Amino acid sequence: DTPVRISNEARAALRHSLGVGPQQRLLLGLGRFHPNKGWADLLEAFAGLPENQRAGLVLVMVGAGPLEAQLKTHARALGIEQQTRWPGWQLDPAPWYQSCDVFVCASRHEPLGNVVLEAWANRALLVSTRAEGPLELVRDGVNGLLANVADPASMQQALQRALGLDIPTRAAMLDAGMSLVQAEFSEEAIVRQYLDFYTRLLSNKQG
Q1: Which terminus, N or C, of the chain has the lesser number of Cβ atoms within 10 Å?
Q2: H-helix or E-strand containing 175?
Q3: Range with the lowest mean pLDDT among 25-29, 149-153, 190-194?
Q4: Is the dihedral angle over the CA atoms 63, 65, 67, 72 positive or is it negative?
């Protein structure tokens, strides 16, 4: 279902709670801290951004899992500890998607890409790797931006592209992502597909 939009005040409050200033931009990673999710690649891509550009950014890592301590150590070693936030696991991801400037799916293995659909449903600008699931959903430059799997340099370039988008191009990508969710993955669309499938089965049985 399309999530309820949070208010501008709620969005500002969440960002403020993370120490994100009004002139800063928030990059979001969200999910379980597991090797399949490519978290280290995201940290390295963020660290590789030009220093003058990175100064205006905050990377928020929402989630929990077995790699948490290791990832925090890696962020410290990369020199990005002060620009990285770790708010833990969140039961409702919608406010986080809606409060970010760019959502990043850095997965090395992602069979479907639920986070991609969630990001689009929340109108979050998407940067994703070319993992199996996202590659079936994302059209590079149309409804998101793609980077190579397990390639921090490629991810860095995709992040720079996302941060450099003009307002009309960004809006068009958000609209394209939302349109795909509504057309193919909404409750109405899924129910319709199941009913069509059952109708065909019934027709074949009667035949």
Answers
A1: C
A2: helix 167-180
A3: 190-194
A4: positive
| Residue 184: half-sphere exposure toward Cβ, Cα within 13 Å | 10
Rg (C-alpha) for the chain, rounded Å, is 18
* Position 106 pLDDT exceeds 90: yes
Phi first, then psi: what are they for 129, rounded to 5°?
-75, 170
pLDDT, tens digit, 9 for 90 and up, residues 147-172: 999 999 999 999 999 999 999 999 99
Residue 74 near residue 43 (C-beta atoms within 8 A):
yes
Name the token pair of 80: 């990005």
* Beta sheet of 25-32, edge-to-edge order: 84-88, 57-64, 25-32, 102-105, 126-129, 145-147
CA atoms within 13 A of residue 67's CA, in its CB half-sphere:
17
Q: How far apart are CA 207 and CA 202, in angstroms?
A: 8
The helix (run of H) or strand (run of E) holding residue 32 is strand 25-32
Is pTM, for the whole model, over 0.90? yes
